[in-house]
Write a structure and sequence with these properties.
There is one protein chain. Helix content is about 30%, strand content about 20%. The chain has about 290 residues and is of the alpha+beta class. It has two domains: about 10-130; about 140-285. The strands form two sheets. Strands 1, 2, 3, 4, 5 and 6 form a six-stranded antiparallel beta sheet that branches. A six-stranded antiparallel beta sheet has the order 7-8-9-10-12-11. It is globular, with a radius of gyration of 19 Å.
Length: about 290
């Protein structure tokens, strides 16, 4: 099997959009119970050995977790007292998945209160009413997970090279991206917001400190794209990264297919990550070592 699997965005758009909503539901369940952590690190999902999940969520003196299993195509709901339930991952609407997931939790005595409407999407259909998104191609979901595995692996190497404050490598369900962020330690100017169906204060918390962020999402290229950006963007950042800088997005982009087709995919991606990180740190004169 090719360790850098190929999955054209056009071939799984309907499944991607449905899965995006499912991950928002699961992420909001984690957010309902997890103690707040700076920059919304308490709401993310994590790539796992079988898919992606919440990790352990505190619940009273015990806990539970939810995990998307893209090998057996199940959402596992497990408690620390040994009980569990499953929700099948199959062609079904967001509304049906929402009902089944909350039902599985209720059978375990867990009834989270969440804001039942998606964030960071233009057409924010309440979960309970969303019959529009109903596709699930299990093979596409598995391939996407394997893309995330490769991105996670290389991002983890890149993360190890930085000794300052840095985020985990984690999956943000708002924009459906695997992300990793470095911080200079300095406070940033208030973020102007602008993400659809997302209050400005949410973005202001996420971008409260000067940063350089990197990630992968299933867009921006024929097979998805890696990205890098700085906030606030220092003068000269676009010019320094002219070969990859997208003026519309104000981000640097590296198509997934460029990485997968290269003789050394790991080095191709690491070169992109290291060069954009150096540009952010050097042009903004970050204190201390930039790597």
């Amino acid at each position: 099997m090719n360790s850098w699997p190929r999955l054209r965005v056009a071939d799984w758009t309907d499944t991607r959009d449905t899965l995006h909503m499912w991950t928002q539901i699961v992420g909001k369940i984690r957010m309902a119970y997890a103690p707040p952590v700076n920059h919304w690190w308490h709401v993310t999902l994590y790539v796992s050995a079988r898919g992606m999940g919440t990790g352990l969520i505190p619940y009273g003196e015990n806990g539970f977790d939810l995990e998307f299993d893209f090998l057996d195509h199940r959402l596992h709901v497990r408690t620390t007292d040994g009980r569990s339930r499953e929700v099948a991952l199959a062609p079904k609407s967001v509304a049906e998945f929402y009902r089944e997931t909350l039902g599985a939790l209720a059978e375990l005595g867990i009834e989270p209160r969440i804001h039942p409407v998606p964030n960071e999407v233009e057409n924010a259909i309440p979960f309970a009413e969303d019959e529009q998104h109903c596709a699930y191609d299990g093979e596409a979901a598995r391939l996407f997970w394997r893309q995330l595995l490769q991105a996670q692996r290389v991002f983890s190497v890149f993360r190890s090279e930085f000794t300052g404050k840095a985020s985990p490598v984690h999956f943000f369900w708002g924009a459906m991206d695997l992300a990793y962020t470095r911080f200079s330690g300095r406070v940033a100017p208030p973020h102007p917001g602008g993400a659809p169906n997302c209050p400005p204060w949410v973005m202001q918390e996420g971008y409260s400190h000067e940063l350089a962020s990197f990630g992968f999402w299933p867009g921006g290229g024929e097979e998805g794209a890696f990205y890098a950006y700085a906030y606030p963007e220092p003068a000269g950042y676009a010019e320094r990264n002219a070969a990859s800088y997208d003026q519309a997005l104000r981000e640097c982009l590296l198509p997934y297919e460029t990485v997968a087709d290269s003789p050394d995919p790991d080095e191709t991606l690491l070169t992109f990550l290291r060069s954009t990180a150096a540009a952010a740190a050097e042009l903004a004169d970050w204190p201390g070592p930039s790597a």
